[in-house]
Amino acid sequence: MSVLNFPRIYLNGHMFWNPPTANNNDAFPLYDAVKMRMNWPFLSYYDINESNAAAQLMPWAITPLAYENVPDYVLQVPGNGKTTSYPMMPAEWDLFGDNACGTVDYDTTHSVIIGGEFQANSYISQDSLISKNFQLLGNPFGSTAPTPARFVDVSPWQNTFTALYFDKLLLGDATCGLTLKREHRMLDRFLNFNWGAFGGLSYVTTTWQTCFPRDNLQWVVSDSNLLKTLQQEMIQQNAKGLMFRFSTYLTFYNKNGIFNDYPTVGGQAQMQEMYQKGLDNVADIFFNPAYSRTAGTLGLWFDDEFPTAPAGRRLTPQEPVPMSRPHPNDTDPGSMTLGVISATVQGSTLSLDLSNTFPFYPVKGTAETIPVAEKFAAGSYELGVRQDGGAFQSVASFGFEQYRQAAFDKRSGLLDLPLSPEAQSLLQTGRLELQQQASPNLTAATQCEWTAEVIESGSFIDVGDSHTLNIMVQRDGVPAPAGIGLWVAEYGNAFMLTTSSYYLAFSNKANFTLFQDYPSHRQDNVETLPQFIEDKVAASVRTVGSGRKLSAILPSTSATDQDEGVAVLYQDYLETPAALNLRPCLQFVDAKAMSGTLKDDLHNTVDYSLTRIQTNDQGIAQLKVKAVAPGFPTLRFFLEENGQQPTIPFSFSYLDAYTDFLAPLRILPQEPQLQDEFIKCWNNVYQDKNANLRIWNEFIFPNILQPFYYLYPIMNKFMPLNSLQRIEGAVDQLIVLISKPYQEESTLAMPITRDMPQSRRKVLEIWANDLVKMGYPPKPLDPADYPQA
To answer: How far apart, in Å, are the Cα atoms of 610 and each of 99, 147, 593, 656, 752?
Structure first.
């Protein structure tokens, strides 16, 4: 059902992404996001410390670092050791970014409604809504003027999970349009890094989805038949509301002057000069966003559908299929796995969502300006079923003309195939399978029996807090029956650089080979991804470049006898400033203690925990956890088969994660001593005539605001975080923006990345309410007036 149902409204355009890149740095660990401090041990390598940071840190951040000036433990990380990626600037490509995102409406580039459909193959290209803009808007503050939507990486060093916060989706205008008030924030889905093998992140595609209940819709139908029919069918089909699903693809950088009127940026020398001017004078601050193509569909949302992930039958890739383009890159693989497909049957029509199924490439000669998209030619396909392991039986077919870019643009990647009565009956007998027509045919994708998606993924939780997640489980596209077992494991990343793979969280001091280091050619370094003895060993791959500089994904290079790699052990690497502890961040309710022996040279035993939950009669399983340590845990869900505990891998590659059932969380540190230290500090200085300056300089700025001042210099333009006078003048605004409700959903939350633990929020609130707003009364604070949970 979902947007695959009718009616539909199609949208097409471009999106911008404006991240503060000193925060989500690809290659250098300048921010310890677990402790929420600048990474002083790393910065000390460059003689930068808390005492001299005000003068030294930002000049260093905007200076390109040569390969030989980077610590070994940074270069060792797989994907980080390509010599041609250096010199590299720690501030990277968008220092003054504000986390804003949205659609593009500039010069001749517009993001608009392009058409609609009431039933299969009844395309509507004329309507008063068509050619009007659509936009994601943020929360207003103190006026009716909209602000941008915002996107936040749940983990600043992982590209895998990004949350999109917004207040409204607006289609059309005040004369004819639809305003959809947010109910659910979005999280990117099906982010397929494998396609980076064609030439980097520009080829990586992702899917976004959110849903809006009926009460959140404001209609201005006017004479639009598209809006009128959508509204009527929502009521007649008893839909819960509307669903908006879109894909983003072909992401490119350095597009100033093309998609906007910002100053163009040349090489690193010019960028360094422009950054320095922006740091010296807020009038010279500039943005340098990334831009993606986007295509979306607005349709109906029904009961039992995931609000933030595609529901229904889901096909995931199996065998790689041959792909080609007219002007290939030298590193283009000859074959590649497809992406994810969603499917539904509506009477005599089989509808497919191919928006994230076939990779895109920029037509030759267009990448430097406005990239023109085309699809890789990946052959023709038969879609059918296979009954109980028997012969494949086709029910429909399609070829390149039906998934090439012109067809994609017209219907936002959706494809409707006619079904004969025989085919309709056949579809009731087995699960879907997609075969590429070849000799012999290749099984390109198969239908998953089970799916499990978290409704409220991407949550921020403080240490000590308990949290409940609701997981919607489906079997063959419909809610699972009651009593289906779901096993849950916690995974983490081992280093705060690049996009790393996942390792099971464990509680003992186990050791294993984290990666192989080849000092003379570190571009070949690979994660070893050890497994338990009874499990299959995962294949290693190597990435050329990391983050934005990802340029290829290649098979692991074997070392020669004369050039053996050096095994870098996890416990050894844990001593470096770039490492992350794989200790558990979560405590499961009804946890089951487990252990396993690793299949590597060390054969260490790993102690870890699992929990088993089960579905209720709505197909929803509830998971209750307690946050016990700061970090970035990722939960993975495993369906129970025939009452047997599923196999739990010790590690898995991020290249495979797009088809797994994962839920990222962020656990914020709890610092119970912080409030007592703040009160003690004030009580030592309150009689001083400069008590306001002393409490600011000795506590508030260094302990709370300092990392945000360095990482988000865009704030210098609005509320400089190192200026006591400016903060005092906007203290009422500050109290609102740092509040817990704003952290949960607002696009105006401070900090915008939402990494403000309750312990620091509480101190800021005491400082703002009881000191600043009271004129810094010359009297001590009583700890008894501020009880802590």
So the answer is: 35, 42, 7, 21, 33
pLDDT at 547: 53
Query: What are the beta bridge partners of residue 692?
Result: none
What is the rounded CA–CA span in Å between residue 1 and residue 312? 7
Residue 636 phi, psi (nearest 5): -125, 140
pLDDT of residue 205: 95
Q: What whole-number distance in Å separates Cα of residue 395 and Cα of residue 5?
A: 19
According to DSSP, the β-strands at 485-492 and 605-614 are: antiparallel
Burial class (CB in 10 A: 0-12, 13-18, 19+), 286: middle
Is the preceding omega at residue 310 within 30 degrees of 0, hence cis? no
At 357 the pLDDT is 98
HEC-encoded secondary structure of 378-431: CCCEEEEEECCCCCEEEEEEECHHHHCHHHHHHHCCEEEEECCHHHHHHCCCCE
Maximum alpha-carbon separation in the chain: 89
> Residues 635, 492: contact at Cβ < 8 Å?
no
User: In this predicted model, what pLDDT tens digit does every residue of 520-575 receive, in sequence order?
Assistant: 999 999 999 999 997 654 544 555 554 555 544 455 444 443 467 899 999 999 99
Cβ contacts of 337 within 8 Å, gap of 6 or more:
194, 317, 318, 319, 320, 321, 444
47 burial type by CB count under 10 A (0-12 exposed, 13-18 middle, 19+ buried): exposed
Of 414, 427, 323, give the one whose Cα is nearest residue 383. Answer: 427
Phi, psi of 763 (to 5 degrees): -65, -45
How many Cα atoms within 13 Å fall on the side-chain side of residue 430? 19
| Nearest by Cα to 302 from 5, 615, 9 | 5
- Predicted local distance difference test score (pLDDT) of residue 141: 83
Q: Hey, which residues does 541 pair with through a beta bridge?
A: 555
Mutual angle of helices 672-685 and 758-766, in 10-degree steps:
20
Tokens representing 524 are 């070949």
Helices and strands: H and E segment counts in the chain: 16, 47
Both tokens of residue 328?
A: 């290939």
Tokens linked to 706 = 């300092």
CA 125 to chain centre: 34
Strand partners, 170: 135, 179
Task: Spell 31-46 as b/e; 16+ CB within 10 A means b.
Answer: bbbbebebbeebbeeb
- Closest to 375 measured CA to CA, from 198, 193, 600: 198
SS (H, E, C) 39-58: CHHHHHHHCCCCCCHHHHHH
Q: Distance (Å, rounded) from C-alpha 629 to C-alpha 31?
A: 18
Low-confidence ranges of the chain (pLDDT < 70): 1, 535-563
Are 668 and 517 a contacting pair, CB within 8 Å?
no
DSSP-assigned letters across all residues of 184-243: S-EE-B---GGGGGGTSGGG--EEEEEEEEGGGEEEE-TT-HHHHHHHHHHHHTT-SEEE
- Cα 680 to chain centroid distance, Å, stands at 40
Residue 560: the pLDDT is 42
Phi-psi region at 72: left, alpha or beta (left = phi > 0; alpha = psi -120 to 50): alpha
Residues 6 or more apart whose CB falls under 8 angstroms from that of 163 comprise 151, 152, 153, 154, 185, 186, 187, 458
Q: Encode 631-656: b = buried (16+ Cβ within 10 Å), e = exposed.
A: bbbbbbbbbbeeeeeeebbbbbbbbb
Give the separation between CA 145 and CA 237, rounded to whole angstroms.
36
Distance CA 265, CA 256 (A): 7
CA distance 371 to 517: 37
Alpha helical stretches, state H, 464-515: none
Cα-based distances in Å from 503 to 64, 486, 537, 592, 603: 32, 20, 13, 18, 16
